[in-house]
């Protein structure tokens, strides 16, 4: 549908504008996401529809990818009034805690996500973005995605330094190992790192430890 819609806009922009306008009224979010994507891709032909998407209900995770790129790609082309609307909408985003109280950190992070799309386009935008990242202590990763996955190598660390392992008496080390509980936190020292450190010891030392454990 997305590809067909882009072709429709290219061939019959006036008729397509009416159709995209209707898509923005659709109750299904996926259809409205396609409409926002179309406005981004054919902004010159569909810029009259921009006011309909610069409203708070679209500044949510479900529409983030499409709206974030629309802002990032075309914010400089917005009118001054439209830019003010964007900034006010972003500043007004509030995240609450489980107790229904406003969370300063979560709110700043949510605002930083959207400000990242426009922070390079003006002093006001840059200042607002800097205020948010000062609160959260860093920039948001992959701000145009509501969720993402990453891959890479993990160097498993031992919760007990290898030098300490080698310097302990076997019976003391065995007691330490038997009482150790792995919390299972990703990228933090844990059982796999401990096993790796044990294997790195001398063969006779490792054998003594394993024998004592069994």
Name a few traits of the molecule.
214 residues, mainly alpha, 3 domains, 12 helices, 58% helix
N-to-C CA distance: 63 Å
Q: What average pLDDT do the residues reach?
A: 83
Oligomeric description of these chains: single chain
Number of domains as seen in the coordinates:
3
Q: Please report the number of helical segments.
A: 12
Main beta-sheet annotation: none
Give the topology, please.
Blueprint: H1 2-11, H2 13-23, H3 29-41, H4 43-46, H5 64-74, H6 80-91, H7 104-115, H8 123-136, H9 162-167, H10 170-179, H11 191-200, H12 203-213
Helix pairs in contact: 1-2, 1-3, 3-5, 7-8, 10-12
Descriptive overview:
The protein is mainly α and 214 residues long. It has 3 domains: 1-53; 56-146, no CATH class; 162-213, no CATH class. Helix content is 58%, strand content 0%. It has 12 helices and no strands. It has helices at 2-11, 13-23, 29-41, 43-46, 64-74, 80-91, 104-115, 123-136, 162-167, 170-179, 191-200, 203-213. It is elongated.
Structure summary:
The chain is an all-alpha fold.
């Amino acid at each position: 549908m997305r590809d067909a819609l882009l072709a429709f806009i290219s061939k019959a922009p006036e008729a397509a504008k009416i159709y995209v306008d209707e898509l923005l009224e659709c109750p299904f979010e996926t259809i409205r996401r396609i409409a926002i994507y179309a406005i981004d891709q054919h902004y010159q032909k569909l810029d009259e529809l921009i006011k309909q998407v610069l409203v708070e209900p679209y500044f949510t995770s479900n529409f983030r990818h499409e709206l974030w790129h629309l802002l990032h790609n075309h914010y400089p082309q917005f009118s001054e009034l439209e830019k003010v609307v964007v900034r006010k909408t972003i500043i007004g985003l509030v995240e609450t805690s489980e107790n229904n109280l406003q969370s300063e950190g979560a709110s700043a992070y949510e605002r930083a996500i959207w400000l990242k799309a426009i922070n390079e386009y003006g002093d006001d935008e840059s200042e607002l973005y800097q205020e948010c990242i000062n609160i959260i202590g860093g920039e948001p990763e992959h701000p145009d995605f509501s969720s993402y996955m990453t891959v890479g190598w993990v160097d498993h660390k031992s919760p007990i330094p290898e030098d300490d392992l080698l310097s302990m008496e076997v019976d003391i080390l065995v007691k330490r190992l038997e009482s150790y509980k792995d919390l299972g936190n990703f990228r933090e020292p844990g059982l796999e790192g401990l096993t790796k450190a044990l294997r790195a010891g001398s063969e006779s030392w490792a054998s003594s430890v394993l024998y004592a454990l069994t």
